[in-house]
Amino acid sequence: MVRDHELAKLNRLAGAADQTRDKLAKLPTDVQASSDAAMIAIQQAHLRWAATQRMQLNQVLARQRAAMMEQQRKSARSFGRAEAVARLIKRGTSKP
């Protein structure tokens, strides 16, 4: 039961990291050239906003990756414990 809880938590963390990666991928990296000065100013402002968002999302993604690594460690430990208990139970039931 603990193993399943740990694996579910790992899956939730992985899903959150995937969503963050999707958000990063949707941010613009360049714009089409324009001859209108007002449009150029708007595009530049939007690119500055996107750069700020990208920095923030990269920080979020780094924290999410760190949490995933920690959760992978916990999940592996829970999985190992569950396997050990299963072997002990199997060994105990196979004795006459």
Question: Can you describe this structure?
Answer:
The protein is mostly helical. The chain has one domain. It has two helices and no strands. α1 runs antiparallel to α2. The protein is rod-shaped and about 85 Å long. The two termini are 29 Å apart. The mean pLDDT is 90.
Topology record:
Elements: H1 2-26, H2 37-94
Helix pairs in contact: 1-2
Concise structural overview:
The chain is an all-alpha fold and 96 residues long.
Task: From the structure above, extract its key features.
96 residues, mainly alpha, 2 helices, 0% strand, rod-shaped
In one word, what is the shape?
rod-shaped
Main sheet, how many strands, which sense, barrel?
A: none
What is the CA-based Rg, rounded? 24 Å
Helix and strand succession?
HH
Helix/strand class: mainly alpha
Proportion of residues in β-strands: under 5%
Mean pLDDT metric = 90
- What distance lies between the first and last C-alpha atoms, to the nearest angstrom? 29 Å
Helical content stands at over 70%
Quantity of strands, as a count: 0
Give unreliable regions as ranges.
none
Number of domains: 1
Tally of individual helices = 2
